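tokens incoming
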């Protein structure tokens, strides 16, 4: 399936105006979380990206260690990758959807997971105050965020 076809089918199923007209990029608001959908022809994937937020000024880079631990085998991110936008410095989650395997249902489930993980990681980031707190909270924060995922598809 091509990127444009996937978005058109998704838009038709969920009644999203304008999404089918996207040319290489689209934006959704999913329960207050802005999700960008990008066509990556080089990898033949649709990429979904959601911003978590800016790091606390006194976290001393320790959140990066927590991100690396969560990225290990994608265990703390449900298939997404935690990263930092080099242009803005904000943390984000990015999830690829290989177009050869993607369908409306897998995109919907993947976006639901991405939004839930974004909300969870925003809570983790908001709760951080110092580098020491980040280090001491790292394992528990990742595990708790995975347990806090609500059921059901988020409304677009």
């Amino acid at each position: 399936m091509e990127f444009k076809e996937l978005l058109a089918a998704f838009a038709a199923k969920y009644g999203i105006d304008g999404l089918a007209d996207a040319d290489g990029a689209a934006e959704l608001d999913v329960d207050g979380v802005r999700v960008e959908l990008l066509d990556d022809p080089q990898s033949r994937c649709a990429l979904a990206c959601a911003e978590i937020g800016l790091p606390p000024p006194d976290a001393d880079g320790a959140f990066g260690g927590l991100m690396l631990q969560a990225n290990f085998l994608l265990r703390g991110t449900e298939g997404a990758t935690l990263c930092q936008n080099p242009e803005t410095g904000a943390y984000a989650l990015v999830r690829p959807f290989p177009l050869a395997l993607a369908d409306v249902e897998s995109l919907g489930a993947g976006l639901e997971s991405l939004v839930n993980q974004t909300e969870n990681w925003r809570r983790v980031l908001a709760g951080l105050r110092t580098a020491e707190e980040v280090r001491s909270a790292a394992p528990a924060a990742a595990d708790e965020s995975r347990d806090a995922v609500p059921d059901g598809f988020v409304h677009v």
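note: Residues 3-147 form a domain with the Yope Regulator; Chain: A, fold (CATH 3.30.1460.10).
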